[in-house]
């Protein structure tokens, strides 16, 4: 499982890695992908995450949970594309 998560970790930008590590620590995801979609300037990210911690939560509550974890980072961003799923 972690091999699949870490497979792309070596190629992450520093900001992608920071976001990846925060989400991995808090949500113990089965699948996680973090991409800077701003052309490398770190102002917009696309996150795709599957976690057992989302089980029983509506999509709105799943997104609120991710937003809470990343609240300090999101203040610096122009946008976030977020896709969440429970296992």
From TrEMBL:
SUPFAM superfamilies: BolA-like. Gene3D superfamilies: BolA-like. Pfam families: BolA. InterPro entries: BolA (IPR002634), BolA-like_sf (IPR036065), Mt_Fe-S_assembly_factor (IPR052275). One of its GO terms (cellular component) is mitochondrial matrix. Belongs to the BolA/IbaG family. This is LAFE_0D12376g1_1. It comes from Lachancea fermentati.
